[in-house]
TrEMBL record:
Acetylates the N-terminal alanine of ribosomal protein bS18. Belongs to the acetyltransferase family. RimI subfamily. Keywords: Acyltransferase, Cytoplasm, Ribonucleoprotein, Ribosomal protein, Transferase. Pfam families: Acetyltransf_1 (PF00583). Its EC number is 2.3.1.266. NCBIfam families: rimI. PANTHER family: AMINOALKYLPHOSPHONATE N-ACETYLTRANSFERASE-RELATED-RELATED (PTHR43877). This is [Ribosomal protein bS18]-alanine N-acetyltransferase.
Length: 151
């Protein structure tokens, strides 16, 4: 039986544990420590999924007033995938977006990342556009997906 992970607010001391996950998942397109520091300094909402003090995953949400939120990223260590951690993080971000009054939640996902697109579609996200060459240096297109909050 898998032990439940704890979700906690991302703190500066977690950032070093995010970097190997970023490298493993995104290679040359990984985020740097400075990028995560900037997200925290900007007051964005970030969570980590912890097993004791070990970071298994993370996710971030930025707000665009008056009523829009953007999922910045969701990442789960490859050896911790398929345990519902990404889904748990996504649900927590959506709950935060709703609590803060976001009417729409948007995200970008690589056009070749079918598993992530399927996950997002299961939560009501629909494709609304494409950003050509968004991911660099691979020049991979990003699919823009949006979820409207239903009253």
């Amino acid at each position: 039986m898998t032990r439940a992970v704890e979700l906690a607010e991302l703190r500066w001391f977690h950032i070093e544990q995010l970097l190997p996950i970023e490298d493993e998942l995104f290679g040359e397109e990984r985020w740097s420590a400075a990028m995560f520091w900037n997200e925290l300094a900007g007051g964005h909402h970030y969570l980590v999924a912890l097993d004791d003090d070990r970071v298994l995953g993370y996710a971030g949400l930025a707000f665009a007033p008056p009523d829009e939120a953007w999922i910045q990223n969701i990442g789960v260590r490859k050896d911790a995938q398929r345990r519902g951690i990404g889904r748990h993080l996504l649900e927590a971000l959506l709950a935060e977006a709703e609590a803060r009054g976001a009417r729409q939640v948007l995200l970008e996902v690589a056009v070749d990342n079918a598993p992530a697109q399927k996950l997002y579609a299961g939560y009501g996200f629909e494709a609304v556009g494409v950003r050509r060459g968004y991911y660099q240096p691979s020049n991979t297109d990003a699919l823009v997906m949006m979820r409207d909050h239903k009253d």
